[in-house]
Amino acid sequence: MSGPASPATPRKGSRSKARKRALDILFESEARGEDPQEVLARRIAGADAPPVSDFAASLVEGVVAHRAEIDETISSYSRGWTMARMPAVDRMILRIGVFEIRYCDDVPDPVAIDEAIDLARALSTDDSPRFVNGVLAGVSSGRPGTVAPPSPDRVDVPAGAELAPAGPDEPADDEPPTG
């Protein structure tokens, strides 16, 4: 799927930092129940915060602009794991990864996937890199995978969120996932 190109291509290291910064902003906005663009504006204006690159800003803005479609894509490719049951950091990593795969023509899919896996490895559960890889590889190829979800004992479910009932191919909330 084609879309707007990202800003001028900076060094790989700076793009990795930009992805981390975008993840921080998206995570903070969800954790605080704030609009991501307001958090982004505060971060850009803040003298005491690390600088926000154009690429980081474009990732946040792109995820916000396409969030419904991105979340629908993630839901359709994450077998047996609802958005509400995913660790929050995994949701944000997947949102950025899907945005890059679907809308950033200058980012090769394998690069977007590798960067997402690196973020999951550094910031999430032991099971998350494999889960993120499976979902994003499915999105990239157009074929859903059969990756087991992260273990349920390591999930942060937002307060008050209702877990979706298990379907015929997914474990109930009190059963450990298999895969």
UniProtKB/TrEMBL annotation:
Q: What is the lineage of its organism?
A: Bacteria, Bacillati, Actinomycetota, Actinomycetes, Pseudonocardiales
Q: What is this protein called?
A: Transcription antitermination protein NusB
Keywords of the record, alphabetical order, are: RNA-binding, Transcription, Transcription antitermination, Transcription regulation
* One Pfam family per UniProt: NusB
What is the top-level taxon of the source organism? Bacteria
UniProt function note? Involved in transcription antitermination. Required for transcription of ribosomal RNA (rRNA) genes. Binds specifically to the boxA antiterminator sequence of the ribosomal RNA (rrn) operons.
Residue intervals of the NusB/RsmB/TIM44 domain:
17-139
Question: Acidic residues compositional bias: what residue ranges?
Answer: 170-179
Organism this protein belongs to: Actinomycetospora chlora
- Cross-referenced InterPro entries, in alphabetical order? NusB-like_sf, NusB_fam, NusB_RsmB_TIM44
Q: Where is the composition biased (Low complexity)?
A: 158-169
Cell division listed as a keyword: no
| Matches recorded under CDD domains | Terminator_NusB
Family of the protein in this entry: Belongs to the NusB family.
Q: Where are the annotated segments for Disordered?
A: 1-20, 135-179
